[in-house]
Amino acid sequence: MFGPRAALRSQTHLLSAPTRPISRLTNSPSPLPRYTSTVAYANAPSKRSIWLRRLAYTTIFGGLGMLAGQLIEEKVAAPPVPGSLEDKIVMEELLQIYEKATPIVMELRSNPNYEESDVYQNYSEEENRHRLTAGPLRGSRGLALQKVFYNRKEQESISIVFLGEGTEGWPTITHGGALATVIDENLGRVALRSFPGKTGVTANLQLNYRAPVYSGHFYTFHSRLDKERITERKAYVTGEVRDPLGGLCVEASALFVVPKKLKLKELGETY
Protein backbone atom coordinates (compact mmCIF):
# COMPACT_ATOMS: atom_id res chain seq x y z
CA MET A 1 0.00 0.00 0.00
CA PHE A 2 1.29 3.49 -0.88
CA GLY A 3 0.72 6.47 1.36
CA PRO A 4 -0.56 9.80 -0.03
CA ARG A 5 2.96 11.26 -0.36
CA ALA A 6 4.37 8.16 -2.07
CA ALA A 7 1.47 8.14 -4.48
CA LEU A 8 2.02 11.84 -5.25
CA ARG A 9 5.77 11.26 -5.90
CA SER A 10 4.93 8.33 -8.14
CA GLN A 11 2.46 10.44 -10.15
CA THR A 12 5.02 13.28 -10.46
CA HIS A 13 7.72 10.89 -11.65
CA LEU A 14 5.40 9.41 -14.27
CA LEU A 15 4.35 12.83 -15.54
CA SER A 16 7.96 14.05 -15.83
CA ALA A 17 9.31 10.85 -17.45
CA PRO A 18 9.92 10.82 -21.25
CA THR A 19 7.43 8.98 -23.40
CA ARG A 20 10.15 6.62 -24.67
CA PRO A 21 13.36 5.54 -22.88
CA ILE A 22 16.76 6.87 -24.15
CA SER A 23 19.20 4.31 -25.51
CA ARG A 24 22.57 4.47 -23.78
CA LEU A 25 24.45 3.39 -26.92
CA THR A 26 22.92 5.73 -29.48
CA ASN A 27 21.70 8.47 -27.17
CA SER A 28 18.42 8.39 -29.12
CA PRO A 29 14.99 7.22 -28.25
CA SER A 30 14.89 3.45 -28.25
CA PRO A 31 12.04 1.72 -30.02
CA LEU A 32 9.17 0.50 -27.91
CA PRO A 33 9.10 -3.22 -27.14
CA ARG A 34 7.49 -5.29 -29.82
CA TYR A 35 4.76 -6.59 -27.51
CA THR A 36 3.60 -3.11 -26.52
CA SER A 37 1.69 -2.36 -29.71
CA THR A 38 0.57 -5.97 -30.06
CA VAL A 39 -1.07 -6.02 -26.63
CA ALA A 40 -2.64 -2.61 -27.11
CA TYR A 41 -4.25 -3.52 -30.40
CA ALA A 42 -5.31 -6.92 -29.18
CA ASN A 43 -7.22 -5.42 -26.22
CA ALA A 44 -8.68 -2.49 -28.11
CA PRO A 45 -12.42 -3.07 -28.77
CA SER A 46 -13.68 -2.60 -32.28
CA LYS A 47 -16.03 0.23 -33.18
CA ARG A 48 -18.77 -2.29 -33.90
CA SER A 49 -18.58 -3.89 -30.45
CA ILE A 50 -18.64 -0.44 -28.83
CA TRP A 51 -21.80 0.54 -30.70
CA LEU A 52 -23.44 -2.81 -29.94
CA ARG A 53 -22.65 -2.36 -26.26
CA ARG A 54 -24.04 1.17 -26.27
CA LEU A 55 -27.19 -0.04 -28.02
CA ALA A 56 -27.65 -2.80 -25.44
CA TYR A 57 -27.18 -0.37 -22.54
CA THR A 58 -29.59 2.09 -24.11
CA THR A 59 -32.22 -0.62 -24.57
CA ILE A 60 -31.86 -2.02 -21.05
CA PHE A 61 -31.78 1.25 -19.15
CA GLY A 62 -34.35 2.85 -21.42
CA GLY A 63 -36.74 -0.03 -20.77
CA LEU A 64 -36.16 0.12 -17.04
CA GLY A 65 -36.75 3.86 -17.07
CA MET A 66 -40.04 3.49 -18.94
CA LEU A 67 -41.18 0.75 -16.54
CA ALA A 68 -40.27 2.82 -13.49
CA GLY A 69 -42.03 5.83 -14.94
CA GLN A 70 -45.17 3.80 -15.59
CA LEU A 71 -45.18 2.41 -12.05
CA ILE A 72 -44.69 5.87 -10.55
CA GLU A 73 -47.42 7.32 -12.75
CA GLU A 74 -49.85 4.60 -11.69
CA LYS A 75 -48.99 5.14 -8.03
CA VAL A 76 -49.30 8.93 -7.97
CA ALA A 77 -52.30 9.06 -10.29
CA ALA A 78 -55.61 9.94 -8.68
CA PRO A 79 -57.74 6.87 -7.84
CA PRO A 80 -60.89 6.29 -9.92
CA VAL A 81 -63.85 8.48 -9.06
CA PRO A 82 -66.57 6.47 -7.27
CA GLY A 83 -69.32 5.52 -9.69
CA SER A 84 -67.18 6.07 -12.81
CA LEU A 85 -66.73 3.39 -15.45
CA GLU A 86 -63.12 2.79 -14.37
CA ASP A 87 -64.24 2.48 -10.76
CA LYS A 88 -66.91 -0.07 -11.67
CA ILE A 89 -64.39 -2.13 -13.63
CA VAL A 90 -61.98 -2.22 -10.67
CA MET A 91 -64.81 -3.10 -8.29
CA GLU A 92 -65.86 -5.99 -10.50
CA GLU A 93 -62.29 -7.29 -10.66
CA LEU A 94 -62.01 -7.15 -6.86
CA LEU A 95 -65.26 -9.06 -6.51
CA GLN A 96 -63.92 -11.78 -8.81
CA ILE A 97 -60.75 -12.05 -6.72
CA TYR A 98 -62.86 -12.27 -3.56
CA GLU A 99 -65.02 -15.02 -5.04
CA LYS A 100 -62.32 -17.18 -6.62
CA ALA A 101 -58.89 -16.40 -5.17
CA THR A 102 -59.40 -15.77 -1.46
CA PRO A 103 -58.88 -19.02 0.50
CA ILE A 104 -60.53 -17.77 3.70
CA VAL A 105 -63.78 -17.14 1.83
CA MET A 106 -63.96 -20.79 0.82
CA GLU A 107 -63.14 -21.86 4.35
CA LEU A 108 -65.81 -19.69 5.98
CA ARG A 109 -68.46 -20.61 3.44
CA SER A 110 -67.87 -24.29 4.14
CA ASN A 111 -68.55 -23.68 7.85
CA PRO A 112 -72.35 -23.73 8.50
CA ASN A 113 -71.91 -21.65 11.67
CA TYR A 114 -71.01 -18.53 9.69
CA GLU A 115 -73.54 -16.32 7.91
CA GLU A 116 -72.26 -14.20 5.03
CA SER A 117 -73.69 -10.73 4.39
CA ASP A 118 -72.86 -7.35 2.86
CA VAL A 119 -72.50 -4.25 5.00
CA TYR A 120 -75.04 -1.41 5.41
CA GLN A 121 -77.97 -3.42 4.10
CA ASN A 122 -80.20 -1.78 6.72
CA TYR A 123 -79.76 1.64 5.09
CA SER A 124 -81.08 3.24 1.95
CA GLU A 125 -78.76 4.62 -0.73
CA GLU A 126 -79.46 8.15 0.48
CA GLU A 127 -78.62 7.26 4.08
CA ASN A 128 -75.39 5.56 3.04
CA ARG A 129 -74.15 8.72 1.33
CA HIS A 130 -74.07 10.46 4.71
CA ARG A 131 -72.02 7.73 6.37
CA LEU A 132 -68.23 8.06 6.39
CA THR A 133 -67.48 4.48 5.41
CA ALA A 134 -70.34 4.13 2.94
CA GLY A 135 -70.11 7.67 1.52
CA PRO A 136 -66.70 9.41 1.26
CA LEU A 137 -64.84 6.09 1.58
CA ARG A 138 -66.93 4.22 -0.95
CA GLY A 139 -65.61 2.92 -4.27
CA SER A 140 -62.39 1.19 -5.28
CA ARG A 141 -60.25 3.97 -3.83
CA GLY A 142 -61.65 3.47 -0.32
CA LEU A 143 -63.32 0.49 1.33
CA ALA A 144 -63.84 -1.18 -2.01
CA LEU A 145 -65.27 -4.41 -0.65
CA GLN A 146 -66.59 -5.43 2.77
CA LYS A 147 -68.09 -8.83 3.54
CA VAL A 148 -69.08 -10.00 7.00
CA PHE A 149 -69.18 -13.60 8.25
CA TYR A 150 -71.03 -13.75 11.56
CA ASN A 151 -71.09 -16.71 13.94
CA ARG A 152 -74.19 -16.53 16.17
CA LYS A 153 -73.12 -19.45 18.30
CA GLU A 154 -69.76 -17.97 19.25
CA GLN A 155 -70.91 -14.34 18.89
CA GLU A 156 -67.96 -13.42 16.76
CA SER A 157 -67.41 -12.19 13.24
CA ILE A 158 -64.75 -12.17 10.55
CA SER A 159 -64.93 -9.36 8.01
CA ILE A 160 -62.99 -9.36 4.77
CA VAL A 161 -62.15 -5.83 3.66
CA PHE A 162 -60.23 -4.45 0.69
CA LEU A 163 -58.40 -1.23 1.57
CA GLY A 164 -57.98 1.05 -1.43
CA GLU A 165 -55.35 3.70 -2.04
CA GLY A 166 -57.66 6.45 -0.83
CA THR A 167 -57.23 5.16 2.75
CA GLU A 168 -53.49 5.89 2.79
CA GLY A 169 -51.75 8.11 5.31
CA TRP A 170 -48.18 7.57 4.14
CA PRO A 171 -47.70 6.29 0.57
CA THR A 172 -48.75 2.62 0.38
CA ILE A 173 -49.61 2.58 4.13
CA THR A 174 -53.23 2.69 5.31
CA HIS A 175 -53.91 5.61 7.65
CA GLY A 176 -54.17 4.59 11.30
CA GLY A 177 -57.32 6.67 11.71
CA ALA A 178 -58.98 4.99 8.74
CA LEU A 179 -58.09 1.63 10.24
CA ALA A 180 -59.53 2.67 13.60
CA THR A 181 -62.81 3.60 11.90
CA VAL A 182 -63.13 0.20 10.21
CA ILE A 183 -62.12 -1.62 13.40
CA ASP A 184 -64.65 0.37 15.43
CA GLU A 185 -67.47 -0.61 13.07
CA ASN A 186 -66.48 -4.27 13.03
CA LEU A 187 -66.29 -4.49 16.82
CA GLY A 188 -69.61 -2.68 17.02
CA ARG A 189 -71.31 -5.18 14.73
CA VAL A 190 -70.70 -7.88 17.32
CA ALA A 191 -71.43 -5.74 20.39
CA LEU A 192 -74.68 -4.20 19.17
CA ARG A 193 -76.18 -7.55 18.21
CA SER A 194 -76.07 -8.47 21.91
CA PHE A 195 -78.18 -5.47 23.01
CA PRO A 196 -81.98 -5.84 23.13
CA GLY A 197 -82.44 -2.72 20.99
CA LYS A 198 -79.68 -3.63 18.51
CA THR A 199 -78.06 -0.23 18.95
CA GLY A 200 -75.41 1.53 21.02
CA VAL A 201 -72.30 3.73 20.90
CA THR A 202 -68.56 3.36 21.42
CA ALA A 203 -67.49 4.32 24.95
CA ASN A 204 -63.85 3.22 24.72
CA LEU A 205 -61.56 1.97 21.97
CA GLN A 206 -57.97 0.83 22.43
CA LEU A 207 -55.64 -0.12 19.57
CA ASN A 208 -52.14 -1.54 19.41
CA TYR A 209 -50.60 -1.26 15.94
CA ARG A 210 -48.23 -4.20 15.48
CA ALA A 211 -47.33 -4.07 11.79
CA PRO A 212 -47.99 -1.83 8.76
CA VAL A 213 -51.25 -2.31 6.89
CA TYR A 214 -50.66 -1.78 3.17
CA SER A 215 -53.26 -0.41 0.81
CA GLY A 216 -54.36 -2.41 -2.20
CA HIS A 217 -54.84 -5.68 -0.32
CA PHE A 218 -57.52 -7.76 1.39
CA TYR A 219 -57.36 -7.87 5.20
CA THR A 220 -59.43 -9.77 7.75
CA PHE A 221 -61.00 -8.01 10.75
CA HIS A 222 -61.77 -10.40 13.62
CA SER A 223 -64.21 -9.46 16.43
CA ARG A 224 -65.29 -11.49 19.46
CA LEU A 225 -67.75 -10.67 22.24
CA ASP A 226 -66.66 -11.13 25.86
CA LYS A 227 -69.63 -13.19 27.03
CA GLU A 228 -68.66 -13.08 30.71
CA ARG A 229 -68.86 -9.27 30.95
CA ILE A 230 -71.95 -8.54 28.88
CA THR A 231 -75.01 -6.73 30.30
CA GLU A 232 -78.08 -5.12 28.77
CA ARG A 233 -76.23 -1.82 28.51
CA LYS A 234 -72.56 -2.79 28.25
CA ALA A 235 -70.62 -5.03 25.90
CA TYR A 236 -66.87 -5.65 25.81
CA VAL A 237 -65.36 -6.79 22.52
CA THR A 238 -61.84 -7.78 21.45
CA GLY A 239 -60.51 -7.94 17.94
CA GLU A 240 -57.55 -8.00 15.61
CA VAL A 241 -56.58 -7.24 12.03
CA ARG A 242 -54.58 -9.78 10.04
CA ASP A 243 -52.84 -9.55 6.69
CA PRO A 244 -53.41 -11.92 3.71
CA LEU A 245 -50.86 -14.39 5.16
CA GLY A 246 -52.41 -14.35 8.63
CA GLY A 247 -49.86 -12.03 10.21
CA LEU A 248 -51.06 -9.88 13.11
CA CYS A 249 -51.25 -6.16 12.27
CA VAL A 250 -53.52 -4.60 14.90
CA GLU A 251 -54.89 -5.66 18.30
CA ALA A 252 -58.08 -3.99 19.55
CA SER A 253 -60.45 -3.89 22.48
CA ALA A 254 -63.55 -1.77 23.01
CA LEU A 255 -66.49 -1.03 25.28
CA PHE A 256 -69.91 -0.30 23.79
CA VAL A 257 -72.81 1.09 25.81
CA VAL A 258 -76.49 1.93 25.43
CA PRO A 259 -77.07 5.55 26.51
CA LYS A 260 -79.83 6.06 29.10
CA LYS A 261 -81.09 9.42 27.90
CA LEU A 262 -80.20 9.38 24.22
CA LYS A 263 -82.62 7.74 21.82
CA LEU A 264 -80.74 5.90 19.06
CA LYS A 265 -81.94 4.42 15.80
CA GLU A 266 -81.88 0.62 15.73
CA LEU A 267 -79.00 -0.48 13.51
CA GLY A 268 -80.26 -4.02 12.96
CA GLU A 269 -78.43 -7.20 12.09
CA THR A 270 -76.56 -6.12 8.97
CA TYR A 271 -75.25 -2.60 9.34
Question: What would a concise description of this structure say?
Answer:
Helix content is 37%, strand content 22%. With 271 residues, the protein is of the alpha+beta class. The protein has a 7-stranded antiparallel β-sheet with strand order 1-2-3-5-6-7-4, sandwiched between helices.
Layout of secondary structure:
Elements: H1 4-16, H2 34-43, H3 47-76, H4 85-100, H5 103-109, E1 114-118, H6 125-129, E2 143-151, E3 156-163, H7 176-193, E4 201-209, E5 217-225, E6 234-242, E7 248-257
Antiparallel strand pairs: 1-2, 2-3, 3-5, 4-7, 5-6, 6-7
CATH topology of the domain at 74-257: Thiol Ester Dehydrase, Chain A
**Gyration radius, to the nearest Å?**
34 Å
Write down the oligomeric state: single chain
Strands side by side in the biggest sheet: 1-2-3-5-6-7-4
